[in-house]
Write the structure tokens for this entry.
Amino acid sequence: MVPVSGSDTHRAIDAVWRIESARLIAGVARIVGDVGLAEELAQDALVAALQQWPESGVPDNPGAWLMAIAKRRAIDGLRRRTVLERKQEELGREFEAQQETAGPDIDAAIDDHVGDDLLRLIFTACHPVLSTEARVALTLRLLGGLTTGEIARAFLVPEPTVAQRIVRAKRTLAEARVPFEVPAGAELAARLSSVLEVIYLVFNEGYSATAGDDWMRPALCEDALRLGRILAELLPTEPEVHGLAALMEIQASRTRARVGSSGEPVLLLDQDRARWDHILIRRGLTALERAEALGGALGPYAVQAAIAACHARARTAEETDWARIAALYDALAQLMPSPVVELNRAVALAMAFGPEAGLELVDELTSEPQLSAYHLLPSVRGDLLAKLGRWDEARVEFERAASLTRNTREQKLLLERAAACTTGPPGQ
Amino acid sequence: MRFMVIVKANKDSEAGVLPDEHILTEMGKYNDELVKAGVMLAGEGLHASSKGARVRFSGGTRTVIDGPFTETKELIAGFWLIQVKSKEEAIEWVKRAPMEDTELEIRQVFEAEDFGEALSPELREAEERLRAQAAERHQ
């Protein structure tokens, strides 16, 4: 036992909860088969800790202590519920069998289950029967250990909204009798992509946080990274899991460099690469290598990570391997066809093989209805035309781009470029 | 937030004595736990200070002093870099380290997200757009 004072104990309990809650909920959910009930029981164990630890001190193995309390309550609860008699028999048998086989090593037996239980919890929280918002809230709550209030602050929504989302999600899972299990076979791929989508959504929500925002928003990046890293250890043979981890690590490595001193966004090619986080880059490249080493064609996350890696590897913007980036965008376009991906590919082609190569593709995209109001299309086209000395056409494109953007700073810049086309090439 | 957990040197580490198999196994398990929890960013053990050097700056002159250095307790033998939610969580993880008779020091790393002052409206708008683009890309 570690003796600590009252308020210290509360902070210590909070920290233990951060570390143990997901494993706790997952372990209990395996017994009761219901994540909502499992969370309540885990909370009961937390309450017990809050009552006892200030006097007794934090136990040496707080996780096992909490798990023992929660499991005991789970079994007691099951025994009391006549409706669940059959289940109880089943579980009783499982529990006894576990105790028999495990003997004195019961802790080790429980530990062996931890990975599987966590995976089950992740797949259940991200079950397709739930709306995306519900998946996100439930995942952060059950696996990220975030409180309802923290989730609400991070997503800029009222706390009761999040609370309601979580209650409804748990009810939906119970009503749909979603089994607490890891999907197998063909189902795994589809269900996994739902899990990855939720994690990346959380990451992007944090990544798009602005300076004035509550610190809970950028913290979402760390939550997502942590979930991604956990998942990579739980499913080490799934390349896309490493692909997503790599993508997030590399994107997160630019956090410091993507905002200028007066808070303005700095574009990738203009970023001070010394400010990139090289620990995260190294982690990202390692994760990407793990994805590639598993063989087979790369999935969309791994391809995006590979593109990000091209930038990460280049010591200067000029050293960027644009030909490879263009090829990767080509691969990405096959995996998830989108005119925005095509536009990115056009930029890469222009950087690699000259403005004409890019312009050819951009011209094809001008008839794309999805891009009709997208200011970056005329902006890119204007840039390529200007590089080719086609000033009149370039001016029209810059003006058009300026009329499409609502961002005043960017509008000003585009109009300046349009004006420069009239007066002729800059510096001549 | 990130913390560096600093392992202090002792007589053994300074003598270049490698940890025995039992300690190595325990340490491996602990590191594994940190990795599985998504907490560990990096961690390394350091050679004895006899293999190191110091560069002393005094005005314009630089003096190189080769190891070993005598004040063992002030020396470090290794570190972890961990990413956690709070100092308390860092402490909780460190308490689980399989150490005996030593001291681990926990120091917070300066964070990247010391963003500037509140953003201008147009910048907020730019970020909104970036967000929309990111969403679009994943349609």
In short: Chain A is about 70% helix and 0% strand. Chain A has a mean pLDDT of 88. The two ends of chain A are 78 Å apart (CA to CA).
